[in-house]
Design a protein that fits this description.
The protein is mainly α. The protein has helices at 3-11, 15-22, 34-49, 53-65, 79-88, 95-104, 126-129; strands at residues 28-31, 67-70, 108-109, 123-124. The protein has a single domain (3-129), classed as Rossmann fold (3-Layer(aba) Sandwich). The strands form two sheets. It has a two-stranded parallel ribbon. Strands 3-4 form a two-stranded parallel sheet.
């Protein structure tokens, strides 16, 4: 999964949050930098969601408990291919997600439309996870 899914979870008590917290037959994976990316976006998430910082911290901890954080070295061998694919699609900044998906031969759960332009990867949505 990419950060857009985790950002969406605190913004509404909707289906993405339920899918992430309650789906047991699916393993969710993300690159290790996602934890720092979400912590960095926390002030904006707090403003948009209107929830208290302490509540957001607990929610993010709960969400991260469901996500297998994958170290960079586990997918580093796919970074060159991921860079080429994202560059061709003008979708820079998502290379780690693409490399991880390629290494795991797994789809990416995202709300970021940039991924739609990237050839050679599969995408999934919440409905396919439920």
């Amino acid at each position: 999964m990419d950060a857009s899914v985790l950002v969406a979870c605190p913004l509404s008590n909707g289906s993405s949050r339920r899918a992430l917290l309650h789906t047991v037959q699916t393993e969710f994976c993300a690159p290790e930098f996602i934890t720092e990316e979400l912590r960095r976006k926390s002030p904006k998430i707090i403003v948009l969601s209107g929830i208290a910082p302490s509540v957001l911290a607990v929610l993010l901890d709960d969400l991260f408990d469901r996500v297998n954080i994958v170290p960079h070295q586990a997918y580093a061998h796919r970074m060159a291919q991921a860079r080429a694919l994202t560059r061709a699609a003008d979708a820079q900044g998502v290379e780690d997600y693409v490399a991880l998906a390629l290494a795991l031969d797994a789809p990416i759960w995202t709300f970021d439309k940039d991924f739609n332009r990237i050839q050679g990867i599969r995408l999934t949505n919440r409905h396919q996870i439920d």
